[in-house]
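Justification of resources, computational component.

The compute hours requested in this renewal are based largely on the per-chain cost of generating structure records like the one below. Each record pairs the submitted sequence with a full structure-token output. That output is archived, and it is also reused by downstream analysis tasks.
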Amino acid sequence: MRFTTAMLADSAQVQNGKLYVLGGGFNVIRAKTLPTVHAQLFLALVAEVEPEERQRDLDFIIKLMDEDGHEAGVEARGKLRVGLPTNLPPGEMSVVPLVTPFHNISFEKAKGYSFVVSMDDRELTRIRFRVTVDS
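The structure output for this chain reads:
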């Protein structure tokens, strides 16, 4: 599995196999003061799943890390299972949109952060962003 798309969004959802994103593709969260709590943040992802990865559970984990490589205490675990496609030629990859919401994330410092998506201890993608304070 690999990700062809990975972004932060204000809102996102998957319907009928398509990814719908509102306010996506940013890399700065602006706060008035610190610490701050960001009420709602979505990760919008599009995965390509190889034929040999179908018909089995693909366990992945998403962790929020700071720019110093420390875990920031936010984590999500997911399980993806892709069935056999009926409309693709043999050997073709399956494209699967995914959305992961995060609520009430607390940021103590103005600095860089990343959501790191991994599977089997292998990093698949990293979504980098920065928290800043408006002055």
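The chain has a mean pLDDT of 96. The chain has one domain: 2-133.
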